[in-house]
Amino acid sequence: MSEEKVMSDLEIARHATMHPIGEIAAAAGINEEAVEAYGRFKAKIDPSRLAVSEARGKVVLVSAMSPTPAGEGKSTTTVGLADSLARAGHKVMIALREPSLGPVLGMKGGATGGGYSQVLPMDEINLHFTGDFHAITSANNALMALVDNHIFQGNELNIDPRRMTFKRVLDMNDRSLREVVIGLGGPVQGVPRQDGFDITVASEIMAVFCLATDLTDLRERLGRITFGYTYERKPVTVADLGVQGALTLLLKEAIKPNLVQTIAGTPALVHGGPFANIAHGCNSLIATQTARRLADIVVTEAGFGADLGAEKFMDIKARVGDVAPSAVVVVATIRALKMHGGVAKDNLTAPNLEALAGGIANLQRHVHNVEKFGLTPVVAINRFATDTAEELDWLLDWCAQEGVPAAVADVWGRGGGGDGGDDLAAKVAAALDVPHTFRHLYPLELSVEEKIRTIVQEMYGADGVDFSVPALKRLAEIEKNGWSGLPVCMAKTQYSFSDDASRMGAPKGFVIHVRDLLPKTGAGFIVALTGAVMTMPGLPKDPAALRMDVDADGNPVGLT
User: Fold this and answer.
1) What pTM does this model have?
2) Is 146 helix (H, G, I), strand (E, B) or coil?
């Protein structure tokens, strides 16, 4: 008898029954005046028109151990957990980031969860969705067009073209655009200068978009963006150029959160999408706060491992808005632990308790890192078909010995309203009732150098920091311009606690190399560039786009 074929994520999504978005909105308590439909299954929500004003929902932050190329299913766990909490009778809403086309066409192939724990319509969310990223890209590039035009038209602000700190962006992985020269071809083509492109999700406008509290705050933050310096080395801002109003105009519809649904019908706000390895890695503050106005429990996630997205959620996002988590989930998988224990990706399906024990130090460090913020995390063991009972029991026993609540979650295959996440949901619901005192990792009064040193020693386990000569000059510049009171956003490889992606597990005896510092005065943080992390990624040798297509009926093919 032949085995039943396992459906792909796209096939599962296509067979799911979606409810009209008006029904999802009504069930979530969203009054009709606040709903702006984008077709049958998507809508923008206008927070200013919501009948409910008080933000009362408790926040559950989903993070993870250090990711591996095998994939750990953090978004799948986030969706499955929310569905299971709703199944248990809690009023729940999800708050997630929007996928970026760069990774979707590159490595991931999709980023809306998986199996029976997905947000829908998965193909539209993974592609152009409601156009938010296009609006952010347009605002970013409009700014740079206006800057270069200002220089060409006489340069009244005395901007030094050699000291521009803002780049154009594209929501695509395109390494060939990292460094370009513009303005060639003669006097009428503009002033020649060296330029480059970042990916849209690394843009400061994306960070501003996701940290703004409302439309007025968005405009003010856009005005504070520093895009370059004068010949006298004084910072020049968007407000100096006088175009913050135009940029806000381009973003006024995009800033409204997007409402969609899970396969099980749980409402989800999917909005904003900064990367966590080069930006702060959290969905928009407006979406999270909107969800807190509508639900008792808000399940959200921060990108990559707890050393990146979760730390930035605690030290950046939770400083800006009242969204400090009441519970934290750290997602782990048997295969990721084995990979951190030295097993090659092709051999992860074979049972290997020795490798499991070898990789547990990675999870242990992430758990201890979360505890430094005043919370004991719940470990969610995202189950894969190749996991053995012996391996799962070993990991549960380890968590028990550590005094950390843990549960196996089978939400890929038994989500969508099934019972695969019930045990995890019960553990998280219990954690929400445990008294705790949330705290940030560092006070803002510390110097930027001391903040970086605190992060790398406390979060990464590094011995210290090595600042390049340009980074040391930038430290002095930050102090001179009065920016030293801003929090720090580390740009670091997601695959390792160190800045070397090949050092897996929980390495010791290393330093973090800071090659440059980028003041993001609109977003309100200082980016520390470490190691070889790129703000414009490249595509892999075998990009996911090679497997994508559309059939004769217009249905997508190859999204995962």
Assistant:
1) 0.95
2) helix
